[in-house]
Amino acid sequence: MAFKITDLPNSKLLKAGDKAPDFSVADQDGKMVSLKDYKGKKVILYFYPKDDTEACTAEACNLRDNRPLIMKKNYEVIGVSADTVKSHKKFAEKYKLPFKILADTEKDIITKYGVWGEKMLFGRKYMGIHRVTFLIDERGVIEEVITDVKTKNHTEQIFS
Questions:
Q1: Contact at 8 Å (CB) between 21 and 35?
Q2: Rg of the chain on CA atoms, in Å
Q3: Which domains does the chain have, with CATH numbers?
Q4: Among 15, 14, 79, 16, which residue's Cα sits nearest to residue 43?
Q5: Over the stretch 12-35, which tens digit does the pLDDT of each residue have?
Q6: Strand, helix or coil at 63?
Q7: How many other C-beta atoms can be found within 10 angstroms of the C-beta atom of residue 1?
Q8: How many CB atoms lie within 10 A of CB 25?
C-alpha cells in the first residue's frame, strides 16, 4: 500500500490559507520563473515525480488538453519536478505542453511546499516527490491542496 502525504509523520505540507512561498528557478527553456511573476493571477502549481513516466504524462496531458477551460477560469499552470531543464525541454516538446515546467533540481520549491517525503512502491520505502497540486489565488494564498491526484482527470478534479 502506498503512503499518502497526509499520512507522513512530521509532514510540512502547506495547507489552504497558507501564503504560497515564492521561488525562483529555471523552466524548460532555461528562463528563470518566480511565483511573484504571477502576482494578480491564479495559479495551478502541480508537483510530479518524473518526466515522461505514465502517470506524470497523463497528468500533464490532461492539463494541456483542458487548457481552454483552465484559461477560462483565469488560471496559469506551472509544473514542478526535480528533473533537469534538458529533461523538461524534451518532455514539453514531446507532448506539446503549453505551460512552464520548473526544474527544481535542488529541491528548493519541493521542500518549501512540503511535497518531499517517504514513499512506498512494491513494498520498498524510498524518498521522493509526492504528487500534489496547489491552487493559489491572485494574492499568493493557497486556496486548496489536492493530495489524491487523479492523473487522467486532474482538471475535472481541480474544478469540481
A1: yes
A2: 15
A3: 5-159 (3.40.30.10)
A4: 79
A5: 899 999 999 999 999 999 999 999
A6: helix
A7: 6
A8: 17
Distance CA 155, CA 15 (A): 20
Answer yes or no: are the C-beta atoms of 152 and 61 closer than 8 Å.
Answer: no
DSSP β-bridge partners for residue 27: 102
Q: Report pLDDT digits (tens) over 70-103.
A: 999 999 999 999 999 999 999 999 999 999 999 9
pLDDT value of position 120: 85
Q: Hey, what's the cell of 15?
A: 495547507
Which grid cell sits at 140? Answer: 499568493
| Nearest C-alpha neighbor of 12 from the set 113, 108, 110 | 113
Catalytic residues: 56
The answer to whether the CB of 106 falls within 8 A of the CB of 17 is no
Cell for 33? 520563473
- Residue 118 contacts residue 8 (beta carbons within 8 Å): yes
All three cell numbers of 138, joined, read 491572485
- Write the DSSP symbol of residue 18: S
